[in-house]
Here is the input.
Amino acid sequence: MPNPVLSADQKAQLSRDGFVTIANIVEAGELETLRSIFDRLFATKAGWSEGNQFDLAGTDQGDAPKLPQILKPSRYAPELLELSPVRRARAITRDYFETDADPIMGEHMIFKPPRVGSTTPWHQDQAYHDPTLDERGLNFWIPLDDTDEANGCMQYVPGSHRMDVLPHHSIGNDPRVHGLEVDGPERFADQVVACPLSAGDAVLHLPTTLHYAGPNRTDRQRRAYIVSMVAPSAQRAVPVDNYWMREKRTARLERAQAAEN
Ligand SMILES: O=C(O)CCC(=O)C(=O)O
Here is the structure.
């Protein structure tokens, strides 16, 4: 049974590098449950009509998704909320940010199908988020399959969390695509650290840590369950000018708006 919170060394590493790995965040016996929920949600296109399932790297215009993603998976599988990743992510976040307040939870799932799953480009999560906040959050990236560079493990630029939010653009400069890429990612190429993991482990990162996951070039699946927790956060003195989000014209947003009406 792993510790419910990070060790002093892990906290120091997270604060220094902007990311840290932890073993076995998924309790014994729950990995198969998570895998079967993941497979069911993608097979049944859960959340598609509300814009919560979509192609992160494409336009959803009839072509097969290259990087299928589901937001808010617990809406479609509430049992996720009872499992160890959510419990542990909440405890670790409260401890790391030294707060008794309940963090705000987000979650998603990203699938890189064998030979199909495309690149998740270099980005900072905060580039997607509320531009008025200086977020105190942790992202828990939990592979449900063993991951390495060949099937798309996470990769990081150590220390990049100390930068402010950098300018981003939609993948392929196409505002119909949900996914973002930081401008000029090649400037970080000589600083990259890959983070291979076993299924059920986790890598944690901060909201401004630059990260990336390569394409799946293998015959293996690469399934990832991602839980994010945001502790009470300060307002920024000056909001980020996130024009890359204001420009978005995705089919997913159209489906979300239609579902609301
Ligand atoms: O799973 C991936 O390919 C990327 C995940 C990611 O960017 C994230 O969790 O912030």
